[in-house]
Amino acid sequence: MGVKIKEKTLLKIALICALVGIAVIYFISINIEVEEKNIEDINLESLDEIIKLTGQINNLAETENAYFIEMQQPAKTTIVVFKDNKQNLTIAKGDFVEIIGQIQDYEGKPEVVAQRVRVVK
């Protein structure tokens, strides 16, 4: 009394569903925008939010586990880039960069942990 489906028909249905799913994910992903913020708008109320910052690098320091980028828009902040992200940073003091990262709490203060850093000028 069960429904019998031929193997070829089942394969076609699975392929169509996979292609439709990939297309839906693609169209959703191109419409996702990361909110660009100013440094002075970053606060503890925005914890875990993914943001985009653009500005000039004033200073760059490297430790064993991370890079610390001091960025200035008009206000200044320090952004952390952990080396476990497998990023090879090719940036220098004076570069204008775009940083996408997550706001986290560090010792009671908001801190941006970078997920992506790229030079824009």
The N- to C-terminal Cα distance equals 68 Å
Question: What percent strand?
Answer: 35-45%
| Helix fraction bin | 10-25%
> What structural class should be given to the helix and strand makeup?
alpha/beta
Quickly count the domains.
1
* CATH architecture designation: Beta Barrel
CATH superfamily: Nucleic acid-binding proteins
Q: How is the largest sheet built, in terms of strand order?
A: 2-3-4-6-5
Largest sheet: 5 strands, mixed, barrel
List SSEs in N-to-C order. Answer: HEEEEEE
Please count the beta strands (DSSP E, at least 2 residues each): 6
Gyration radius, in Å = 22 Å
Unreliable runs: none
CATH class: Mainly Beta
Q: Write the CATH fold name.
A: OB fold (Dihydrolipoamide Acetyltransferase, E2P)
